[in-house]
Each structure stands twice: as structure tokens, then as C-alpha cells.
Amino acid sequence: MEISRLDKELLEKKYPNDTSYLAKLKANYPVQYLIGDVSFCGYPIQVNESVLIPRFETEYLVDKTSKIIQKLNLTSPTILDIGTGSGCIAISLKKIIPSSFVTALDISEEALKTAKENAKLNNVDITFFHQDILNSKIPDYDVIISNPPYIAYDEKVAPEVKYEPSLALYASDQGLEFYKKIVDNLALIHFKLCAFEIGATQKEPIVNYIKAKLPAYQVTCEKDYNNLDRYIFIMKV
Fold first, then answer.
1. N or C: which end of the chain has fewer CB within 10 A?
2. Which structural domains are found in the chain, ordered by start?
3. How far is CA 222 from CA 34, 52, 116, 144, 206, in A?
């Protein structure tokens, strides 16, 4: 596994006189787990095998969502992050919009432990819940945001992905399970904005499902840096 010069320097600093990590790298073990943290939207986020490694594509989701919130003039929005993992999305939104009230939930207690540590590291106040969104309902929030598991169980993934928690990666119904459940919840509550990160081939079925369940809402899809459909935003018309 090839790594950057910066990552190499960080590993050498963290593991002085110890090259055992080289064997892990050769086995495609994520360098982010070896280093122990990443920068996300400019904020330090600790990572370990209990949480998904934040991707740069998700930084755009946060950036775009925060700009829409400001455009909607939501000065002190209530925000719910579903499937928070490391807490990177919730923490970044709270840092960008300090007046917001952010709640984050996850099914994994170990992930929540890491998210709470990251919130403390970044000096932000976030409410965390241990909750399974597939078997629960959510109350009203101004903003709902989620980068849920969306990889189909039979889909091929990069070798290093096998070290990340399967709970944060895979979903049934060809990867659509969580989107449908969240949209079902949205149909029962009042909200101003919902933002999703999606798989590159999932735009059509997700958009069609949203339009059927939320006909009074506007649905837009935007591309990531690789020109792939990656983000869906739902807003009241």
C-alpha cells in the first residue's frame, strides 16, 4: 500500500524504532488507523476500527449543507446526524454554526465512545444517542443529515475497506435500506432540510423514492469532485 510522504513522517514519529506497522500497510491496513487521526473540514478527528474513516467527499456534504442552512436563515437550527460514526459531520457543523443545537445517533456504542471523545477534543457540545434508526422514529428537527451505510452486500470494495466496521458500510435492499427508512421518518415530521451522501449509482432509485413519499418537497442531486452523483438535498418548496 503506497502512502504519502506526510503519512510516512507521521508514522515514523508515532512508531520510533518500530517498523512493525509496515507489515500492516502491506496487508492494506488503513494508514489512518495506524496514525490514529485525520483532518476533517480542518478539525482533528480521532479514528479507530470502531468508526468509518472520514472521506474528503463527506467534507463537501458538510460544506454544502452549512451553506444551505445559512441561505435558509436558520440562525439556531436543530440538527440531527444519523449514523454519526466518528462524529465528524456533527462536530464540523457545530463548529461552523456555533448557535446550532446538534444531536447525533449511532447503533454502535463503540463508535459513540469515539464520537464523544472527538467532541471533547474539538470542544463542542453535542447530544449523543445510542439508537438504531431502522427500528425507531425521530422527532422534528430543522435539519437531518446522514452518510449512512450504502454499500450492497455483494458489491466489491477496496482491500483496505475490509478493516472498517461493516455496520457503517453495508445495507440491504441494494444499499438503499437506510435511505428508505429515513425518508419514511421524514414523511411523519416537520423539517426544513435533509442532506444525504449516496453511492454513485443510487441517485435514481433514491430520488424516485423521495418524490413518492415527499411530493411537497424539492429534491436536488449534486456531484462530487469526481463528477459522480454523490449528494441529495431535500427542501420544502
1. C
2. 1-35 (no CATH), 49-236 (3.40.50.150)
3. 33, 23, 31, 17, 13
